[in-house]
């Protein structure tokens, strides 16, 4: 009897202790009571302290801070909770950086960069575009916005336009003012753009200045592009410098993903007859000679010029010009993923 009585008392004490423990440490079972339930990965309450682990992947710093504040406020509103601890985790985005260069200025590199970025975004990719052309930053005009980037915790927050995010050196100075920067200043500014808060961008296209100077070398040495694209017109004068650009990337062990021939064919708006003011096929022949892929050719089009000046990238619309950019973007994406 004595043993049985002691056993019953011990069992009763254990049951009471278990109930108390259950009250002290319990999962927050109703996710609907907390905001952003799709981001909550773990949530418990112990001794009046709510501990919540949430996934902040793809959020900017301000959005992540808002998520943390919302969860903390909701947790403290629950009965029995006197303290709330919120930990945010985030998967590191896998980002591919692609340099877009040209040996010579005036070949339409920036226009091609903007439209390729738009075309890739329309294909469902999360795209960022950096306008690193110190001598002629034109992406704010091409993308139709003069909005200035903001900054949080010493990081620039890119501007959104046409389904992508972009930053430009042109956003950092007043319109019409020259960027009279020496090499160290230019490369320092480029680093700020590359290290900005690109959030969940998968592809980061960098519109480089023409030539093979400090900005190109700095990008290659510090950021290691996955590959480079060279833009050239078909004429020999342009191709001489395009070859130099290919040679630079080859020497720095950056794969050249391909050459794009721009301003290849002009169709008369009156009779429709095609002509070739700069020749045709030169970039394709040079690509074959150097063993570099040829990504395609783009026309010398009045519509592309007018739409670009108006901040309406042709790749964002419909028609033959949009289709031409989409075809090249498809080849570029295939080259990057393989």
TrEMBL record:
InterPro entries: Mrp/NBP35_ATP-bd, NUBPL-like, P-loop_NTPase, YlxH/NBP35. Coiled coil: none annotated. GO terms for molecular function: 4 iron, 4 sulfur cluster binding; ATP binding; ATP hydrolysis activity; ATP-dependent FeS chaperone activity; metal ion binding. GO terms for biological process: iron-sulfur cluster assembly. Pfam families: ParA. Keywords: ATP-binding, Hydrolase, Iron, Iron-sulfur, Metal-binding, Nucleotide-binding. ATP binds at residues 103-110. PANTHER family: IRON-SULFUR PROTEIN NUBPL. Belongs to the Mrp/NBP35 ATP-binding proteins family. Homodimer. This is Iron-sulfur cluster carrier protein.
